[in-house]
Amino acid sequence: MDVSDRVDNHGEGVEEKQKTKHKGKHDKPKPWDDPNIDHWKIEKFDPSWNNGGMLEVSSFSTLFPQYREKYLQEVWPIVKGALKGHGISCELNLVEGSMTVSTTRKTKDPYIIVKARDLIKLLSRSVPAPQAIKILNDEMQSDIIKIGSLVHNKERFVKRRQNLIGRESTTLKAIEILTGCYVLVQGNTVAAMGSFKGLKQLRRIVEDCMQNKKHPIYHIKELMIKRELEKNPELANESWDRYLPNFKKKNVKRKKVKGKEKKPYTPFPPPQQPSKIDLQLESGEYFLSDKKKSAKKWQERQEKQAEKTAENKRKREAAFVPPKEPTKLDSNKSQDDKNDLATMTKSLKEKSEKFGKQNVIENVKAETFIASAEPPSKKSKRSKS
Length: 385
Fold this sequence. Notes:
Number of helices: 12
Strand order of the largest sheet: 1-3-2
Largest sheet: 3 strands, antiparallel
Structural class: mainly alpha
Helix content: 40-55%
Low-confidence stretches: 1-8, 369-373, 378-385
Number of strands: 6
Order of helices and strands: HEHEEHHEHHEEHHHHHH
């Protein structure tokens, strides 16, 4: 048996040992691999998990605007009672305009202080107290989206924010129903409360609207289609892209802003402007004495004063200038008018005469022009003689 054969056999044996050694080591069933366990479910906190309480005091504070002071004073007993049930102390400082929450010895849940911090933030953002207190529940989360820095032009900002709200808040109501979140648009922020999934969808809708990427109506259509597709169990593991609408952004033609005409480039710098002393040397004022300089300044002041007084006088006298009287008509114009009247009356007379002749011709009987067969009577002859 050769040495090479021994080495090969030894190598094969090592590989077999390694395979058998690590086989199924990581395939053992784990207690958290149970399919009946919902890992996304947030279990309600049990005080028995933390009997010792909190060792250190944690506190958060936030400022609130002055217009919220009166409302917070009225609602503070409700807020204080809600926080007291979780072992959190709260303080309303009207002098500094701030709200503070802090843990006590009775605090058992370590995460409740973060919930209390979100509560005072929502209260300062004009969220009603009964709605804001719901944040203390484990299922409810909050998000404050800052939209003020997304748009720099104030007019565009107001218009896009109105697109988010919609006419009579219809768009905002549809977003609330589809995402399952409470939404409040206030100033430069959007305060929202809901589940993690709903808040993620809402943030995308708000940012796309404010950045003019997609109108909220299109997002609402997508969410409605997705809600219908979720009901079909056959499409659970398929892509939904073919069912979702694809909205393309249209480029609207805008007026081109005329830029400034560029001057031809010259490597030489512009000529230096004359200084005050140079101008005085040119005019000869530099060589005058102080007395003559002051006299010249006084003379210039007097001239300006005289011009000003004359202008003020002209303005005062303008109020007493009589208005222009209406001018009389010229004799030539009156004669022309008379001639026009004469020609008009003459033409009317001629027309009336023509009209009368026509009536006479129409009334003439044809029998008078036809010679009668009977001889004229004697009486008529006598009468003629």
